[in-house]
Amino acid sequence: MPYFVSLTLRFLFVLIMLFSSVAIVANEQFETQRIYLDKAGDLSVEKFTRHVLEKAYSELDIDVQYRSVPLARSYREANAGRLDGLRGRVGTVANTYSNLVKIDLPLVTFNVILIVDKNACRQVTNDKSKECDISQLSNVGTVRGFKALEDYRKTNPLPFDVLELVSKEQTLDMLSANKLQAAILTESLVAQDLFEKHPQWGTYLLTTVGLYHYLNKKHELLIDELTRKLEELESKGWLDAQRSHFNMKVKILVNSLQ
Q1: CA distances (Å), 96 to each of 19, 76, 82, 90, in order?
Q2: Measured between alpha carbons, how far is 149 from 96 in angstroms, rounded to an integer?
Q3: I need a surface site. Which of 10, 64, 137, 160 has the fewest CB within 10 A?
Q4: What whole-number distance in Å separates Cα of residue 207 and Cα of residue 111?
């Protein structure tokens, strides 16, 4: 093979390798500039987490996209990297899902509550002097994958079994239709006007927990940067202002039975 032909082929090979490397780097950078999280709903806490995270990511020139995934499956999807992270979850998720890293600043603090249909509760209680004896409940529902409740039950056994349902909508619909005696949810997931529509509902506080953002560890270079950005928004008072705007401050329980 003539020398100049060999030299030309070597040059072309180097160019191909160079362009391939550039394409790979460009593709990685493109992927880093778009983050896929679990889809938010229309309740205040979901709007709040979406608003806060979009603000933080936008200041890092990263676009946030959403994919609709059931709550229980969202943990597995994020742990496997098919989602880049989770909008907001309790602080113990990484104990179970080792590929998820917690952004160690609570976005918000919320109550986990037992919502009781007082009429149904009175029918099963043996002590008529009590408005409700929750130890006598037998038909209680919650949302499958509710980590805050799972953590609570490890150290605080409940006196009744809990049926795990697909969504908070299904849980509240069954409570409204008298197919459940009670439901366990976060206070922020229950629209306040539901208590006006159902004055027979009462509430018990089970625990108060923080809500954190999680990223898959494949984004480890982004984690420190995002943490600093959220800390900056916190120190400037912007985060607290948003908590007030979205009514995310921990509230006195509606229709408390305690």
Answers
A1: 41, 10, 17, 12
A2: 15
A3: 10
A4: 6
Asked if 175 and 190 count as a contact pair (C-beta separation under 8 A), the reply is no
* Distance in angstroms (rounded) separating the CA atoms of residues 250 and 97: 28
The pTM (predicted TM-score) of the whole model is 0.73
CATH number of the domain located at residue range(s) 110-209 in this protein: 3.40.190.10
Domain boundaries, the chain: 11-109+211-245, 110-209
CATH number of this structure's domain 11-109+211-245 = 3.40.190.10
Q: What are the respective helix, strand and coil percentages of the chain, to the nearest 5?
A: 45, 20, 30
Q: Whose structure tokens read 């039950």? A: 153
Do domains 11-109+211-245 and 110-209 share one topology? The answer is: yes
CA–CA distance, 181 with 141 (Å, rounded to integer): 8
